[in-house]
Amino acid sequence: MTTTNASETQIIADPDVPLVRIVREFDATPEQVFRAHSDPELIVQWLGPRDLTMTVDHYDCRTGGSYRYVHKRDEEEYCFNGTFHEVRPSELIVQTFSFEGFPDSVALERLMLEDIGNGRTRLTATSLVDSFEGRDAFLASGMETGVREGYERLDELLAR
Amino acid sequence: MTTTNASETQIIADPDVPLVRIVREFDATPEQVFRAHSDPELIVQWLGPRDLTMTVDHYDCRTGGSYRYVHKRDEEEYCFNGTFHEVRPSELIVQTFSFEGFPDSVALERLMLEDIGNGRTRLTATSLVDSFEGRDAFLASGMETGVREGYERLDELLAR
């Protein structure tokens, strides 16, 4: 018998298309999880691994808006930007994403929030790119650590 | 021996990823072809088949901008919208695209313009979606006619 920890982050490489699917449950409502993803004052408190400091250049999380943020560790600086294709509060965010170090590798991302009862939410996030090589390089880059650690920080933020 | 008409529109379904690639050459400079794609007063004159009338709701073709337009035929109305992830004048437009009838089917599109000498330009446009079924339904929808006819109209506009 397999037991699954509901707050474990599942990171799945799709077998058919160059897409990564992340599934995670949170002990908070869709409204709370959405707010933590859309309010720049909250997102800087959890997005990414603990040893990076995040600052927001702009974060206009609405349909047709755009964003840019910076992750810093000592002298290292990583900048990311994109646009918000569609934002449905507490339900869905469809956005583009690129790391400015590789501006021609653009991902199309979809965040879905689902009310699973008892004040809990299931988050499903997909990231689609145009090649399996690009997708697999992204998975091999150590993104798993950043994603898992970020969601642990989000658990802590939601529990406050 | 195969002869290829350089102004023939090639529409290719990628065998590995759910992407459509369109290649077309134009008897105009990259600057002219870019302007016809980014200026709303020009784009309404050629985008889509001849029997549809296009009106622009907004068309803010710059990095971080967004757009929405409507195609009309008698009583039928088709609305499309998206965001511009990145715009590099005369070179590249990366944008999202959705038909409002199927808002959850979002495509990530890339338009590349290449100077091939003698005042001519090669356009390569790709459209990436998250499933082969979605890509193949798009190809089966009659989009080929609209694309080919649109580029013939663009030829005419560029020749004026």
Q: How do the helices and strands line up, and which of them pair or pack?
A:
The structure is a homodimer of 160-residue chains.
Chain A (H helix, E strand, L loop, with lengths): L9 E4 L5 E8 L3 H9 L1 H4 L9 E7 L6 E8 L2 E13 L3 E8 L7 E11 L2 E9 L3 H9 L2 H17 L1
Antiparallel strand pairs in A: 1-2, 2-8, 3-4, 4-5, 5-6, 6-7, 7-8
What this model shows, in words?
The structure is a homodimer of 160-residue chains. Chain A is α+β, with helices and mostly antiparallel strands. Chain A is built from 4 helices and 8 strands. In chain A, strands 1-2-8-7-6-5-4-3 form an 8-stranded antiparallel β-sheet, covered by helices on one side. In chain A, a hairpin with a 6-residue loop joins strand 3 and strand 4 (66-73). The first copy, chain A, is globular, with a radius of gyration of 15 Å.
Pick out its properties.
42% strand; 160 residues; alpha+beta; 8 strands
Give, in spatial order, the strands making up the sheet with the most strands of chain A.
Answer: 1-2-8-7-6-5-4-3
Q: What is the distance, rounded to the nearest whole angstrom, between the alpha carbons of the first and last residues of chain A?
A: 34 Å
Main sheet summary of chain A: 8 strands, antiparallel
Task: Please give the most extensive interface between any two protein chains, plus how many residues each contributes.
Answer: A-B, 24 and 24 residues
Structural class of chain A: alpha+beta
Count every beta strand of chain A, where a strand is a DSSP E run of 2 or more residues: 8
Query: Element order, helices and strands of chain A?
Result: EEHHEEEEEEHH
Overall morphology of chain A: globular
The oligomeric state is homodimer
- Residue stretches of chain A low in confidence (pLDDT < 50, at least 5 long) are none
- From the alpha carbons, calculate the radius of gyration of chain A and give it in angstroms: 15 Å
- Structure annotation, total helices of chain A: 4
Helix content of chain A: 10-25%
Strand content of chain A: 35-45%
Overall pLDDT of chain A: 95
